[in-house]
Each structure stands twice: as C-alpha cells, then as structure tokens.
Amino acid sequence: MALMQFRSAPRANAPLAAFLRDASIEVMPRTAASIPDLTAILPAGALVFVAHIDGTDPARMQETVARLARDGFRPVPHIPARLVPDRATLAEWVSAYRAGGACGALLLGGGVATPRGAFRDSMQLLDTGLLGDMPRLFIAGHPEGNRDIDPDGGEAEVMRALRWKADFAARTDARMQIVTQFAFEAQPLIDWARRLRALGIDMPVRIGVAGPARLQTMLKFAIMCGVGPSLRVLQRRARDVTRLLTPFEPTDLVGALAAAKATDPAFPIAAAHIFPLGGITEATDWLARQRGD
C-alpha cells in the first residue's frame, strides 16, 4: 500500500507575521452591525478603530464601541473635530465612550470643509482638557501630505501640527500614537517616519495599509482619500489588463516595512493599521494568512 503524503501549510514569513502581530483595523458601525459574531473574524484582543464619518449617528458609535469591548476587543472611536457641535457634546461623547470600554480615541479634523460647531482641528480638541481620562490618544499622520492642510503640496503645516502634538504629549504625559493615511510604496513611508524622528517627533507610528480589494475599488478610494505620489503603483498595475480582475493585496508593501523593522531596532514604524477597503472579511482573512493564524 502506498503511503499517503501530506503537504504542510506554507509557513508565514516571520518578519511579516511579527510586524502584523499588533495590527489594528478599522470598522464602521453599519459594517459591525451586519456581522453577527465579530469574534469569528477579528483577531482576539485586536485594537479596533470605529470610524465616525459625516452622517453617523453618535448613538450607533457608542453601541459599537460597547459591543467591541464586551467581545474582548480594544475599541478606539474616531472623534472628528469638525463634526462635534460644542464642548458639552464632546464631554458627553468622551464620557459615553469611556463607560462603554473604549481604550482610547482617534482625534481627527473630520473630513468636511466647514466645521459644524466650535472645533476645526484635533489640537482644539486636545486643548479642551476633556480627553485626559482616555488611556491612549491617537492622531492622524499624512506621509504624502494633505492638501487641505498644506495647499502647496508640501508638509510644513502637517509637520508643525505633529510637533505641537508631540509637545502636548510631553507636557501632559499623554500616551499618544500616530495613525497614518494609507499609501502604496514602502520607502517613502520609511523616509517620512525617519524625518519625524529627526524633528524630535518620537510618537509610535501605525502605518496605514489598504486591505485587499479589486483594483478599481482601490483606485476609487485612493483618489477619494487624496493618496499622493504612491498612487502610481496602482496606475502601473492598471496598465496590465491581465491583472485588472485580480485583487490588489498589500503583501509586498507590508513585507518591505517588516524587513526594514527586522533589521533596525530603532525603526520608527511600530505596527500596521488596516483599512478594509475591499471588505472586512477580505482584510481579516489576509491578515490571518500573513500572521500564520
């Protein structure tokens, strides 16, 4: 009788798996509500950011945060400055999130041109003193710039804001991390993170990574979100008609970041932050494969 041979599953790339071990991921309240059991798809104890886009009901935000905490995750709600009506509302939101089990908050400008209330940016939110009870605070980073902040395409104002926040963290002992917009080339991300260190901005960086998605979907979101020069990676791929229907995965990008981190103990990028542009299950399946879960 011939012996049956079994092929073992391919081993995960060790540096890549290590880099993704503490990856965070983003969900919207309506996405979470459509999934009966989040523990079936999200890594146990994961840091899960809850996106607050324009039109989101604050009550749904609070319910999602509380559900994630009950399920053993570490929820981090977005607080978009330009969507906060007033100081009293900010205090109510922060109190509700803490009561629901939030382990921190991501402070953002808010993605709308005109503020709906008293706040224009995250620095004004920090200045209220209302966020001191949050165990962690997260702020936005823009490795490819942000034309809403620097219309000339540079990074002077973006860096000035990050310097202000680093000083705030130093004088208040706030535990603060940077979470960036997604991009598609590793070396410019590495160069940007090292520029932060050269400027004395030493907050840990969670680098934004676009989860697997069809190329057309990826291009749509990249243009909508103002992705900069690294958009050329997608444009080059789009010229290859044989790859148009193949989902774009961030494995090469994250692999390059992981390799850089594995060889540099002072590497400034601490972890990845996954934007599930092609769907939450596609993103978590990819994450599980790369981590060897």
UniProtKB/TrEMBL annotation:
<protein>
    <submittedName>
        <fullName>Methylenetetrahydrofolate reductase</fullName>
    </submittedName>
</protein>
<keyword id="KW-0560">Oxidoreductase</keyword>
<dbReference type="InterPro" id="IPR029041">
    <property type="entry name" value="FAD-linked_oxidoreductase-like"/>
</dbReference>
